Amino acid sequence: MSEKCFSCVDCGVMNCVKRSGAYPEFCPTAALTQEEIDEVTDIYLKNRTNRKVAVAAAEIEGEFYGKYTRVEEIIEFAKRIGAKKIGIATCIGLLEESRIFARILRLNGFEVYGVSCKSGSVNKTTVGVDPKYTCVTGPVMCNPILQAKVLNKEKVDLNVIVGLCVGHDSLFIKYAKGLTTSLITKDRVLGHNPVAALYQSRAYYKKLLLAPVGEEIDYSKISVGNIK
Ligand code: SF4
After folding, report:
1. 133: containing domain
2. 33 and 130, same domain (yes or no)
3. What pLDDT does 219 receive?
């Protein structure tokens, strides 16, 4: 393994937000020049969309902190950036959730266009997936690039991801032209609540901190209290 590179994930002081002490020696804030920071700030100030999005997101955070669910926050965000038409890039397995979400969006005055991940109905083997991986999940590939192209063509003002798979979401974001946010992040084990694995990493999911993913763990040798 390469030498450990320290960064914000190793920080215990968080002076960038607290502004009450010193920055650690590996701190990216301390390593930046004022010119570099100003250059980035200009990207907000000189681009109307960037500014509108940044302001809307911060205002929603400030006004509805701990009050609005993500569904409500997305509606508020869409309103504040002036979106009229919302694109839903949905997993076929979450179509029922997308239907409910679409109903809520329509109730709030938005036009909705949804595209399922299986649209196009292309075989997985066409892009080189080994047929052995189609036994459980079927022959039709998830097609996030097609989802993005359809929603681009529909000229939606905001894309919302509903449960696309890891990696399929990456391709959707890569090819979507408009702004994209997520309503549901897929986790087939944890009821689409992936952070539960981290919250439980000192208990039921402690295996995540004890060995690389996929390695066998001898549970008879460990106890809940042995993770530092
Ligand atoms: S920017 Fe610096 S102070 Fe802020 S979390 Fe990262 S390392 Fe810590």
Report:
1. 74-186
2. no
3. 77
